[in-house]
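Q: Could you fold this chain for me?
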Amino acid sequence: MAAAAPEPQGKYDLGFARQVYGNIDGGDKLAMCMQCGVCSGSCPIGETMDYGPRKLFMMVRAGMKEAVLKSNTIWNCVSCYNCVVRCPRQVPVTYILHDLAAMAVREGYVEARKSDNARFAKAFWWSTRKYGRSDERLITAKYYFSGGLIDGTRKGMANMKIAMAMIKAKRMHLGAPHKIKKRGELKEILAKAKEIQERQPATPEDVK
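A: Sure. Below is the predicted structure, expressed as structure tokens.
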């Protein structure tokens, strides 16, 4: 039996598809999607998604911007790339989902900002930007306590056994964070990347 169509949330944005085609990584390939469902069928956690990639792409075409950017599909992707490898039209499904998630944050959707994926990504990016590499201890602590002191303490205690095992196996070090050399050069690269990212994005009219 076919799944029921998603209920529309808010007004339809008929320029949304053009916005995705022109501003999302891989979005220009989205028009090649023939709705075969291989992507959703290949996803190992498809059952945890509210729509799945195939249906989400249909929603993009329909202009259901709010529903797309509030969907958990764009956050639950684990980047296994099964969909990318198996897509008969070579649509870069994973890249599109990731960039839609970035758009959701950029445009202020509350669900996106509060998601576990977004909070973890922020913690990971903070460590990478500050030290030039990821530090599991700091990333974990920043991620855990981003949900509040009580939530962070609870998660930390629940995972204490895993942390001690990693330390014992020398997979997580003690002491000061490791840093790369020439962090100044990294900061310059990141500053330039931010400058490029913050340039005025194309409007739907620009990509008609």
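A (continued): The CA atoms of residues 5 and 131 lie 46 Å apart.
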